[in-house]
Every structure is written in structure tokens, then in C-alpha cells.
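Bumping with the actual sequence this time:
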Amino acid sequence: MTDQATDPFAHLDDRVKASALSADEARLSLISSDWWITYPPGEDVITRLFELIDLPQRQRPPSIVVHAPPNYGKTAIIARFMALYAGRVSRSEAERDGVVVIQAPPTVDEKRLYLEILASIGASAPNTTTAKLRAMVVNQLRQRRTRLLIIDELQHALIQRASAQQVVLNTLKYLSNELSLSIAGFGSRESKALVYSDEHLAQRFEVVALPAWDKKHSWVVDVVRQRIALFPLRRPTVVDRAFMKLLLQLCGPTGGRMLTMLERCARAAIRDGSEHLSTNLLEAVALRGERLENGI
């Protein structure tokens, strides 16, 4: 007797099985929920981040820059790491601020960088000089025993003139040296060039590129299956070669675009009563999106 015969929702992740018989509106809402989907490149980066905060303190701590085109899951990796980190240190309130996460502002300079850090840790940021803000940041991070500073959208520093870019890079070096602080930068491919533009940072930063989601990687199929199993659909979806070929043709090697397409198809499957994903549904949803985009 097959699993499907004994359990009509054996195709679903245990976390959503109970929702399979819920009303359509509840299921549609669940489809839009954020879930972490395990995949090797993301897990590798998370492991490396934990290694950085677990290293013994040293005068010149290592750092990392993770780069990829937009919609490759960089921000999702940060969120997953922070969720795991919060769970790990929940029993020790004194270490809760060992990691600070900021997003580089659209126009980033030394002063704005300090203001972002202070805002992220809930510290007051008075209208004062850059030198005083620098002292405040160092004092606050030292009190919190911060070991890792994560900066998302690091490529924003490239918008500045070369001299202004160097000021930002010097600020990162100063914070790292002064506080024995590792830095993890996340951004577009240009972030790699930013780090390599400074000889000292180039020696200290490990550069990691998130790969394209293409047919060369077997884990892409696993990710698609994981995501579909989190949709509370009442019938199983067959993720075979034809399904993956069409999905890649429609979305390209961009993970975020691929997952968004699957979500759109899952909502359509509930609304039209088909209750599973198929190549026909992929084509129909893609065509509908194209018509909306072009106003047809």
C-alpha cells in the first residue's frame, strides 16, 4: 500500500499537512508565507558566518563578502542565520547582541554608516559630528561584545566617488581592527570589486559567489520539490525533467524568480481547483503574467 493511499497528503511537508483541508483563503495566505528552503550554497554561507563568530578573538579577524545578482536569496540567508543565531544564544541574554545587521543606505558614507549601526541596535543617534558618532559606535559595540557586523546591499558604496568609497572602506577596516570584529558584506557582483579595490581588505575578505540556479546543480530540483511540498495543495505535483526544463526556460537561473513563479502557480491551482502544479499550469500562469505586463 502506497504512502498516498494511507496518507492522502503524504506529498506535503508535515508543517502544512493540517492546512490542506482549510478554506481556500487560509491556504492562499499560507502560500505567501516565508519559509527557509535548505540548499547547499545557502547552508555553506550560514556555516561560514557561524565560524566567524566562533573564532577566538584576534587582531585582524577574517571577513567575508557574499555576492550575487539580485533575487538570488542573499537577504534570505541573512534572515535564516539570524533566526538560528537567536535560537542559539537565547539562554544567554548577555550575548544576544553578538551580531549586528544593517542595510547600507542608498547613499552611504562614514556618518550614515554609523547612524545605521546605532539605529540597528536601538541606540540614540544625536545630531553630532562624525567623530563623536564613531566613538559612540565603538563604545556601543564593545559593550555588546559584538563579534560580527553584517552589511546588506554593500554595493551601495560604489555609488560614491572613488575618494568617498575609500572612506567607507577605511571605516570598515577601522571598526574591524578596533573591535576585533568580523564583517560579512552581502551585495551584487559589484561588491567583489569594491573589496578588491583595497589591498588590505582584499587580503582579509573571503569572497563567495552564490551560483546560478541552473540544471548543472542537482540541488535546484530538491529546492523546487521542497517549496512545492510547503504549498497546501491537495494533489501531488510531479517534478520531472519536463517540468524543470520549462520552469528554467520561464524564469532563468534566478532563484527568487523561480520561487515566485511556483507561488503564483500554487495560488492558481487552488483557485482553478486543479490542486497541483503542471507544465500546462506553468505555461498558463506565465502567459497571464506576460499579458498583464504588456497591457493585453
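The C-alpha cells above came from a reply further down the thread. Strands lie at 63-67, 99-103, 148-152, 182-187, 205-209.
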